[in-house]
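re: ur question from earlier - yeah i can do the single chain one, its not a big deal. heres the input i used so u can compare w yours
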Amino acid sequence: MTEDANPPTMQTVAVLRADDFPVVEGVAEGEGITFADELVMDDIYQLSSSATRFPLSLRLQDGVDGFVIDDSTTIGTIGNAVYLDSCLTMMASDSTTYEVLVLVEVSDGALEATYLLPLANLVSDTNYRLVGVDRDAATTRFAEVACVSFTRGTNITMASGEQRPIEDLSVGDKVLTRDDGPQAVRWIGQTTLRAVGEFAPIVITKGALHNEHDLLVSPDHRLFVYQRKDALGAGRSEVLVKVRHLINGTTVYQRDGGFVDYFQLLFDEHQIIYAEGIAAESLLIDPRTRAAVPDHVRTSDRGSHSHRAHLDYEVQEKLASRPDAVELLRKASSN
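and the output i got, formated as tokens:
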């Protein structure tokens, strides 16, 4: 592998303001969620009925502690640092538990704002009791959100042309890649998660993008599409699109509820492979995802993949988040 310098990595997460999740009963009554050192166990919180989730755009780069707020954000101050503070466990009155991440924005060493990233859907007028605070788990949970994953049963195109369910793959098996031909699988990750909130899979229904069967992937998974005509107005034929930006409620939608078995495929380099006939990315190791991968399988001494040209093809949300985007891409990529 080459040791090319990696450009900054971007991650956008939908967060709540601290004041949108206040304590309604307990020691800190009336105060919004805060960082770990000031939290009080057993305080009861409620989500405000007027709460709105805002896209917080974060820029990450190797060798830099924490994140920096990018100029594409809709909340926070551009250039301020953001740190993962803790992972909280909240319990509803029916004993169901929910995990949320606390992020803090810092300016000149002083706390500027606190944000909440729910990993499951919280609802207003419901009591949530704080039952756990874990400072160490936040990095891993954030990495799991950022990891791109396929669900059990997804057919992967092997080097031979065979269509094999992802759960039947083994390390060393050769998979067909778009850019580098047959490539051996270096590592396979597997996690079973509650299919809620940030972990609920996106369903691309059969035929929506020329796929033979439904394709279910994690929300931040990116698909590679070659447009014979530039239907999205990206200024190029090749585009990389996050599936969460293609949701239209009919042919592409988020399936919330129950549990989901997620699988991650890692290669020596970040690859575009074929899942149910759709070109989709493999796991990319970067500052966001590194904590979710065992030390012995990381891709270099620096622990990140080198930059690939196809990563420059990602389109902005404003181009993909339109009701007809899926149909446009389907027609644009037709023979």
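The helical segments are 137-146, 317-320, 325-332. not sure if urs matches, ping me
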